Amino acid sequence: MDSKRITWRSLRFLDRRKQSVALMGAVLVSWAGVSAASAQNATKPVPTYLRDVQPILMRRCARCHNEQARFVYNWLDYKTATEDRGEIARRVWDSWKGTYFKESMPIANSPESLAITDQERATIRRWVTSGAAKGVAPPPVIASSRDQKIEMGRKIFTTICAACHQPTGRGVPNVFPPLAGSDFLNADKKRAIKIVINGRQGEIVVNGLKFNNSMPKFPLTDHDIANVLTFVYASFGNSGIEVKADEVAHLRSEPPDVLPAAAPPPKSEFE
After folding, report:
1. HEC string for 14-56
2. pLDDT 10s digits, 81-93
3. pLDDT tens-digit readout, 154-180
4. Per CATH, is 146-252 categorized as 3.40.190.10?
């Protein structure tokens, strides 16, 4: 009887010991995972504005936060973005996490909000909390062929331009003009380049339809603009002409086109 009790107690002791070992192993594995994640995060370069943040803002925020905006800040400008960085972190991260009462940015259910990733949000937040360094823009990647230029332009169009002009290039009726089969675009390459360089406001007529909206000025390089316009001209039933970076550089040195003054509104019959 005594031997049976000793055996039972021994088994219970061994069972508890196994549980303790298993629990300790699980804790060690978890600790190792946290340590590895912390070490990986620590080895990541601190985000800078020009290298990491401005490209995200161009893709996800520029439809509202641009140079032509009247009621919101131009986050595409480093000085403005750093002055407003606390609000950027609250809007992009805290509101999205439910810890800030104002609406999250990008605006909920917008194409930009549906497209922005957790990693992009975390990069913006980490940039703010790490001191909001300006940094240096990465050197431009120069395409070695026309096909490569078109592919690089396609990526820019998809991430920046398609939010307004749509992935099909057909635009939004009465709001954003089409690029597909656009008589306005194909008629004047120089004008198209200067619009992408400087942005544009005011009425235009595209394929017989009037549009009166604002296109923001994007901080794109000469190569970026050449690539994206070459892609657009090669797509959507357009003329297929190529735009070169030196053409963009030359036109960048010229002043923006002076747009014709808007016609005064017709007088009311009661005046």
Report:
1. HHHHHHHHHHHHHHHHHHHHHHHHHHHHHHCCCCCHHHHHHHH
2. 999 999 999 999 9
3. 999 999 999 899 999 999 999 999 999
4. no
